[in-house]
Structures are given as structure tokens and as C-alpha cells.
Amino acid sequence: MDLERTARYIAQLSRHGYRYAIVGKLVRYDREKVKKLEYGDFVFYLCRLPSKKEVIAYCLPRSEGLFRVYCLSSKPLEFPNAPLKLHYDEKTQRLRLLAQKSFISDCLNAIEKASEVKYPSPKLYIAQVNKLLRQLYEVLAYTYNDKERVRAIRRKVKHWVVEALKSQYGLKPRDAMTDYRRYVLKFSDVLRKKKATKA
Known about the structure:
The chain is an alpha+beta fold. It is built from seven helices and seven strands; from the N terminus they run αβββαββββααααα. It is elongated.
């Protein structure tokens, strides 16, 4: 299963009470209670039994070898082969696929550092920002309902880019804002491209 299909499947299961994840190998399980998901070599199961104790008791006779149970509301399941994690939000009662904070921080730190360096031209600086933003947005595009995080990232990037264009490249405030709006990659552009590729 590719990341797109995995993310869509998680979105479909989002409201059905899958609070627990199991990493290991299960056999002869009830597909109404347990769903198998995979991305590349990473295989895991989602379970909607009401407690961790019941999940463990259910898995013991059905596991081949060791297994680990994650209560997704308190310990998100991090994907080992993608900068994503799976979290259950008790407040909204929804399963959510999110970008790992360390990945977001690394991308934002790189954009901030690029904003502190003077490139030969503002065009080259914005090209570097867009390259880093694309890496970040392409992962966030799989996280669906994480709109607040996208808004917060956009505010930070806007501040860095506009300030850099003014201080490093001598643009007037209005021109810096115009260049930001016109040339800096938007999250909606990445989503549009993703949908077009899928179609």
C-alpha cells in the first residue's frame, strides 16, 4: 500500500473508535475489530476494543512472536519510514495522521537559516525557500485535517520571507509583500497538484 492509499484509509477509519495500534504480526483476527495497514515494510494494525488490557488479551493468542500495543491518544505511533505519526484525539474522537514535530522543526529551521543568508539574488533565495517548503507541504498534504498547523507554518514563513526581502535585498515593504504573495509556494498549490496526479 502506498502512502496516499494508507493516508486515505486512515481518514476513512478516523471516526470509528480505533484508539489502539498494534505493531507485530497477527493471524485469525476479527476484521470488524482489527484493521491491517501497511506502508512499505511497515505493517501495523488498528484496534477498536475499549481498553489496552482487552487489546493485549485479544492479541496474545493471535500473535506470531512479539507485539507492542500503542494507546494512540497518549503515545502516537511514529512511522519508521516516513516523517508521520498516528494520533487519536480524545477531544474530537478522531484518528489523525500528523507530521512528526522533528521533521517540521528541521524544515522550518532550514527556511529560517536560508532567510539569514544573502543569496546572489532574491529570486535564488525564494527558490531555496520553495524547495524546502515543498518538502514540508508534500508531507503535510497526507495529514488532511491539520489546518491549524499549516496556518502557523505559513505565518512564520511569511514573516521570515518578507523580513529577508526587506533587510537582505532592499525591497520596500509593499514590494516584499507582493513578491511573497506572488512567488512563494502555497500549500493549496501542492494539494491541487496532488489531486491532479491522483486523477
